[in-house]
Write a structure and sequence with these properties.
Number of helices: 20
Largest sheet: 5 strands, mixed
Structural class: alpha/beta
Shape: globular
Distance between the termini: 92 Å
Radius of gyration: 25 Å
Strand order of the largest sheet: 2-1-5-7-6
Number of strands: 7
Helix content: 55-70%
Oligomer: single chain
Order of helices and strands: HHHHHHHHHHHHHHHHHHEHEEEHEEE
Length: 486
């Protein structure tokens, strides 16, 4: 075959790169897919998808709608939403490969970078259970891909599509609103005719789609009260507090030392999750993209900096899972770094690129495969719920931390198990349930008749009003709580 014939053949194969990336990642996720409900938020998200309810603040209606759609074909609600995570993540991997291919023109670099994203620990972990982060990553990846297409060749149709997808992404994770400056920069920086009209149209579409989606929580919470929520979004004031996640105290200003320590900690964790190799490649790719496509690079940098910086300063302990968009953007830079090495004339540079790609992908895959396989074969949450329902006495009040409360509520609502049990989250803030509001678990327990059996999953230390009566199973302690009047 002549060189002239070989090149068109390779060009025809290029569109297969995103498909290969998506299918390969989906195969990995399906082989390691968790077959049961997850703890905590995962159980709540599966439950709300099942009953078309309202999730904890700030609300994730797109996840709920998609989860319900998958539930029409998969009877088990948790398995349906787990599969939703796997498919959305694989789509994000494919979109990343497609975008990287357009940015670099190198098939190997695009494929390797996309798979590095898909196999990175936090992405893989949440791709096989129910969570919002990877579903959100899919919408962010599509929005970024569309705005970069528009950046190269502006058109009203592509801009409108990018705005609709970005608006939809607010229903998968409201914090995506922080990316708006990056999209506005790319719209205005490109300097097409009527750019201010395009910017205004983009904002209008995003706002319209976002408001329509987020209003779901306002209206639906009047029918189904969301558990685990301090502010019910069925009034204007409650809705605004709900949207900004006021109950989590995310706006509390910390000391400078906290931010410095967290930044160092997160940088180390980010580097570890890309095995160091990915960070080096990403920095090379950032340098090349900065020199060759500066406008795009600045837009991507804004997304990365906002996502990484905002959640690094987040006081919630699971902040590191919230930076999926940062991994996505950095993976585009990894593709740029690999492409730079693979395009060099010197064989040594190309060899370094090939070895780096193999080491990165092989290392990520081998590192977490045993953990992911072990979790996929475990039924720990189901076993916990089954054993708890077996030992808890009739008409008991069960008080549990969110991690255990959510799966117990999931099984009670989706399978009708133990409807006689009253489930309460172990929290001192007000929480709302089908049986009414509870202003704090201790006050609620103290208001119950003395004959009511009350069980808790952990004895609160330092509380003089709580006395242990006995323990059953491996988790539950029967308690008595002195009445407030005493």
């Amino acid at each position: 075959m002549s060189l002239a014939t070989a090149r068109p053949a390779r060009e025809r194969l290029a569109p297969l790169v995103p498909a290969i990336a998506a299918v390969t990642s989906l195969a990995v996720y399906c082989l390691t897919l968790v077959r049961e409900v997850d703890w905590g938020d995962g159980a709540e998200l599966s439950l709300q998808a099942f009953q078309l309810g309202v999730t904890h603040a700030p609300g994730y209606p797109v996840h709920t709608f998609l989860g319900k759609l998958f539930g029409l074909f998969i009877p088990d609600p948790a398995l349906a939403t787990n599969l939703l995570s796997a498919i959305c993540t694989s789509v994000a991997v494919g979109l990343l490969a497609w975008t990287a291919l357009r940015l670099t023109g190198n098939r190997i670099a695009a494929l390797a970078a996309a798979m590095a994203f898909g196999l990175s620990p936090f992405v893989w972990e949440k791709a096989v259970v129910t969570e919002v982060y990877n579903v959100n990553g899919c919408f962010v990846a599509l929005a970024v891909a569309l705005i970069l297409v528009w950046f190269r060749k502006p058109s009203w149709g592509v801009l409108a599509a990018a705005a609709v997808v970005f608006g939809l992404s607010l229903g998968t994770y409201l914090a995506n609103l922080l990316f708006l400056p990056a999209f506005m920069f790319m719209v205005l920086h490109r300097s097409p005719p009527r750019r201010w009209r395009m910017a205004a149209a983009f904002l209008l579409i995003v706002a319209s789609v976002g408001i329509i989606l987020l209003s779901w929580s306002y209206f639906r919470s009047r029918v189904i009260v969301p558990p685990g929520t301090l502010y019910i979004p069925n009034t204007l004031g409650g809705f605004l507090r709900y949207l900004r996640g006021a109950q989590y105290g995310t706006t509390v200003v910390q000391s400078p030392g906290f931010y410095l320590q967290r930044a160092v900690e997160h940088t180390i964790r980010f580097t570890k999750n890309l095995l160091g190799i990915g960070v080096i490649l990403g920095l090379i790719g950032f340098w090349r993209l900065w020199r060759e496509q500066r406008g795009m690079c600045i837009g991507l940098l804004i997304i990365f900096a906002i996502n990484f910086g905002y959640f690094t300063s987040y006081q919630a302990p699971d902040y590191a899972y919230m930076v999926t968009p940062a991994y996505l953007v950095f993976s585009l830079w990894i593709a740029g770094g690999l492409a730079y090495l693979l395009k060099q004339r010197r064989v040594a540079y190309r060899a370094i690129g090939v070895v780096a790609a193999i080491a990165l992908l092989g290392g990520l895959f081998i590192w977490k495969l045993p953990v992911r396989v072990a979790r996929s074969r475990s039924m720990q949450v189901t076993e916990f719920a089954s054993s708890s329902f077996e030992v808890l006495p009739e008409n008991a009040v069960v008080i549990a931390a969110w991690r255990r409360f959510a799966p117990l509520l999931y099984f009670q609502r989706t399978r009708g198990l133990r409807p006689d049990l009253t489930l309460i989250e172990r929290h001192e803030q007000t929480r709302y349930y089908a049986h009414g509001a509870v202003s704090g678990w201790q006050d609620f327990a103290a208001s119950l008749p003395p004959s009511t059996p009350v069980f808790i999953d952990r004895i609160e230390t330092g509380s003089q009003s709580v006395q242990q009566v006995s323990s059953i199973g491996d988790t539950w302690h029967q308690i008595t709580v002195e009445a407030a009047s005493k």
